[in-house]
Amino acid sequence: MQRTEIIHPIPPFYRTDSNILILGSFPSVKSREQRFFYGHPQNRFWKVIARVFKDDEPGSIPEKEAFLARHRIALWDSIGRCTIEGSADSTIRDVVPNDLSVILNAAPICAIFCNGKTSLACYNRYILPVLGREAIVLPSTSPANAAWNVDRLVDAWNVVRIQDK
User: What CATH number is associated with residue 28?
Assistant: First the structure.
């Protein structure tokens, strides 16, 4: 598979009352095709976040947007442009970060979470020096993180709900 430079094709999702920001690294091929976050059916993000908030798991993009709005969650990614091979975080190179001020200037974000170590590494290298705001890393919901089953992920991700108080 060939590594290609890709500009992030999905706009950030947020509302003016969003108080939690969850950042992935870069959207998978499936998410890029669907033009919405966590579109690969094997990614456990929607299953985990629904259980954390004790809500139904959203299926369609409008249901996902309604879920995020209801729970005041903003979603985007740490990386705005990179070269990548398929969907593999391990192949990411030539990173240009997303400008999070788009969200942070519009919404009262009280906590920033990174979905996995790649997102956090990118955040810490490129975004933290600009913002000066720490992010909390959570275990990746990607199927590549097979060591973590859904129950374990939900336990770890419950910190997101605590921040929502």
Answer: 3.40.470.10
Q: Which residues of 40-63 are buried (b: 16+ CB within 10 A; e: fewer)?
A: beebbbbebbbbbbeeeebeeeee
Nearest partner of 161 among 111, 117, 119, judged by Cα:
111
* 116 vs 81: CA distance, rounded Å: 18
Question: What's the pTM?
Answer: 0.94
Non-local CB neighbours of 70 within 8 Å, separated by 6+ positions: 55
First to last CA, the chain: 45
Please give the Cα distance from 98 to 11 (Å, whole number).
10
Asked if 146 contacts 43 with a C-beta cutoff of 8 angstroms, the reply is no
pLDDT tens digits, one per residue of 21-41? 999 998 888 998 999 999 988
Residues of the chain predicted below pLDDT 70:
1-3, 163-165
**Nearest CA to 159 among 59, 84, 48, 69?**
48
User: Which domain, by its residues, includes 123?
Assistant: 4-163
Helical pair 45-52 and 150-163, crossing angle rounded to 10 deg: 50
pLDDT for the residue 163: 60
For the chain, how many structural domains are there in total? 1
